[in-house]
Automatic annotation (TrEMBL):
This is Response regulator transcription factor. Keywords: Phosphoprotein. GO terms for biological process: phosphorelay signal transduction system. It comes from the Bacteria. InterPro entries: CheY-like_superfamily, Sig_transdc_resp-reg_receiver. The modification 4-aspartylphosphate is found at residue 77. Residues 26-141 form the Response regulatory domain. The keyword Phosphoprotein applies. The keyword Phosphoprotein applies.
Length: 154
């Protein structure tokens, strides 16, 4: 079964600040697998309007990358930020970085809601199709919530 992106307006304090729309959207990735880094990098590099900002395997390294050159969209492996600490830190900064959590296991609604409460704008299966990942990037960049269909989030 394929996931679908559902959207809703962002409802956090950060949404009151207008998000600049860049010509080239910088995308960064926090993930433990080098093969996943390479796959997402290739996807970003071959998609018009997207630019690869880099990948790390640790939250502290990602925070350093974000402080040096904040990405517009940050994809975060749920296994590397299980308590959403990085998500909170990045979302609290005025970088206008949209965080998308890449869920390794089927999400329950409470976990997805907690990620949103901690600042994530997206929640999608880590094993999603490339088109779904691109849709999540575009949706969150617009300041809207992107998540897997509630039917899949059981």
């Amino acid at each position: 079964m394929r996931s679908t992106i559902v959207t809703a307006p962002r409802c956090s304090a950060a949404s009151r600040h207008p998000r600049p729309v860049p010509d080239q959207v910088r995308v960064a990735l926090l993930d433990s697998a080098a093969i996943y880094h390479r796959g997402v990098e290739l996807l970003v590099d071959t998609t018009d309007g997207l630019e690869w900002a880099g990948a790390t395997t640790s939250p502290s390294d990602m925070l350093s990358l974000c402080e040096f050159a904040p990405p517009h969209v940050l994809l975060v492996d749920s296994a590397l930020d299980p308590e959403f600490q990085l998500t909170r830190l990045v979302s609290a900064r005025r970088w206008w970085t949209a965080v998308v959590v890449l869920a390794r296991t089927p999400a329950d609604r409470a976990q997805a809601a907690r990620a949103r409460q901690d600042g994530a704008l997206g929640w999608i299966d880590r094993d999603c199709a490339t088109g779904e990942l691109l849709a999540a990037i575009r949706t969150t960049l617009a300041g809207e919530i992107a998540e897997i269909s509630p039917a899949r989030a059981c």
